[in-house]
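Researcher: Here's the sequence for the chain we discussed earlier.
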Amino acid sequence: MPSWLKFARVVYEVIGGAAICICLVWFAFYRVASQMGQPCVDTQVKNVHSPGGTETAQQRFRTCGGHSSVEVLLNVPGDEGNFMRVISLVKTEPSQVSFEWTGPKDLKITFPASAEIEEAYGVVWRVTVTRSPIQ
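Model: Thanks. This is the structure I predict for it:
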């Protein structure tokens, strides 16, 4: 085989490999960018004040792209209107999640046992959070 043909073969292999890599990178970027471009939509379901009135728990339904979750949040002390997530549940609906204050600093959250917990905290700003899955 002549040397120019060997050289041409190597060039074509390099170009082909580069084309495959470019396609894979473009596909990965497209998948990430398509998810990032969709803003999250939060729908407030309800607010409930603690018995002492110093704390507020809020339930909301959050949708980001194709992902949705039911969240319960607590207000940030001294920063009215700013909330921190206490629990985030997937594979459930807002109507299946409830919460109640069982004391001035005790919050009980009830949800179906089939729901999956994405994120959860036991104590937030001296508020004890009890999770109660039901069958």
